[in-house]
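Hi, here's the filled form for the chain we discussed.

Project: internal
Contact: R.S.
Residues: 179
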Amino acid sequence: MASTPDRSGRGRPRPHPAAVIIRAAAGSLGAGMIILPAPELHGRSWALLPAGLLLVAASLAGPAARWRAVGTLAAGVAVLEAALGRPGLPGLAGAGLLILGYLLLVDAPRAMTAAVALRWLRRQLPAAVWGTLVAAAVLAVLAVPVPVSAWLLVAGAGAAVAATVAALPRRPGRPRQPR
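And the returned structure, exactly as it came back:
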């Protein structure tokens, strides 16, 4: 984290308040995404709760915080909890939004001043808005009972393939050879 010198000139430097606030918000969202599906868990799946909370804590502080995989594993535990607990549609939508917010904030640069934090948050706004809209759309679509049809399954699979193709990074093509 970026730091400001201590007033006395001694001791450890203090972290910037903007970086602390971003980390605190990521921790709150991370704890929420792990705790929200917990009431629906049963049996051995309760072991996911402390494991997920430890991964959230490790993704925010300590030497493991530098590795992005720790935050991804914490989000994976939240997804696994939601799958094993089978919460209702509002619970799934809430868990999805908490996971989105956590993943956006845990990926924040470590050293930020207030101006850099505001600019970084502004750049994350489109992803947060689109994620919220998609969660609302999925919630609305899943709330409407629809009989299963082969055409609906084909359309859903096509939409999933199109979304995957759109999300994959593109490799730049070969430059043209001058004539």
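Let me know if anything looks off before we file it.
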